[in-house]
Amino acid sequence: MSRDQDKAGVLSIAVVGHTNTGKTSLLRTLARDAGFGEVADAPATTRQVEGIALAVGGQPAIELYDTPGLEQASEVYELLQEGTGGRHDGPDRIQNFLRQHSVGPMEQEARVLSQVLESEAVVYVIDAREPVLEKYQDELAVLAMTARPVLPVLNFVALDQARPDEWTKALARVGLHTVAAFDTVVFEPEAETRLWNSLAGLVSRHQGIINGLIKDRSRDTRWRHQAARQRSAEFLVDAAAARQRVRRDDEDARAAGLADLKHRIGEGERACLRDLVELFRFTADDWEKGVVPELTGEGAVDLADPEKLRQLGVSSGKYAGSGAAAGAVFDLSTGGLSLGAGTLVGTLAGAGVAGIGNFRNELGDRLTGYQSLAPEPALVCLLFVRQQRLLAHLFSRGHGAVHPFRMDESLARQVEKTALPRTLKQARVNPKWSAFNNPSRASRSRGRGEAVKRLADELARAPEHSA
Ligand SMILES: Nc1nc2c(ncn2[C@@H]2O[C@H](COP(=O)(O)OP(=O)(O)O)[C@@H](O)[C@H]2O)c(=O)[nH]1
Ligand SMILES: [Mg+2]
After folding, report:
1. Which of 20, 127, 129 to mutate to test the pocket of ligand 1 (most atoms within 8 A of CB)?
2. pTM, full prediction
């Protein structure tokens, strides 16, 4: 197939609309590229036509062109009416307009219209919060003259102020009966599929590539979600099974050991976050500092500070008395030792673990003068809830979104309502599962692999949608 034939198979779409309706955001979301173009809550951030290609089966198949806002649609409409005597059809009139106005005050409008004539279809983006003003009707009248199929897309539909019904009625009055609703910030895969299907109805010869795109996208989403849950589960198992052995009688060594354990868990959470952000192709800007309360480093939450823990929601309710209330989040074994060996065995039974082999060493620690520090259930639960939140957010974050994601106060209630998954209880008594303790031993551990898989499945079953 020659390059020209290849090109002929490509569907090109011009994305047009008034300034600030979310055209660039829509392209970002459809292309899964948070870095495309410039998005700002200010007029005229996009001045040139800029394109991006979407691949189907690894081949460029759909080209989307971002255009500047059609700011002076009413003037363009007047000019298109002038001096034609009704002799020319729409595209002829537009061509005529382009010849006369490609430089001068109508330059930007000319750029938009020229892109529309070069494209096969138009996606007309509407800020559905806006009333149906005359300027929009003029815009639609101008677009109608291009003789290109137009798919109106109602954006901002996740917001209360949106008026989709008003818009749907107004659009029907100018012959546009197929309308898609889409929010570029709150992403819903089903809404995206509907948008593409609506387009396929308008450009039927490209039905095949659009179907291909829909299929590619849903496969991609499934794979990405699974990979994300797997990554989260790895971190959680590593954290829950983390241990630090220290000499019991050496306060300095104990403090250093505690700091080291915190550091490994904190770094582990950050590494997981970085991997997830990359997996979903968001940019670092999407995750400003403070996105996830840090465990270590500058601005760290001191996990031994009961007040901070209270703010994070781990010092009261269900987990009270587990050590967290006293601030001894990392000091599992001291609690165990002070409670006596019998209680420790009882705790293990409660964790649903048959053997106590893993703890024998740690009980033996008493005799050798060592103790093992480990994260408390409350902390593990907090980390678990954070991962749930993060995943829920990532799954529904559009690439057009510009606000940073933060864990909010409702996390406190969530930790109290959440039961620690059985797999994580098991991880707590299986230190060999943690790559934070011994990466090569953990990677060889079959138990770890199975635990990660089980936890990933649990994360799929209990999605937490309130992010
Ligand atoms: N809440 C919300 N904000 C959006 C949505 N689409 C765009 N925005 C915001 O609206 C502003 C304008 O978006 P932009 O894509 O630059 O519009 P353009 O001028 O048409 O390209 C930016 O602040 C976006 O973050 C949406 O669907 N929901
Ligand atoms: Mg723009």
Report:
1. 20
2. 0.80
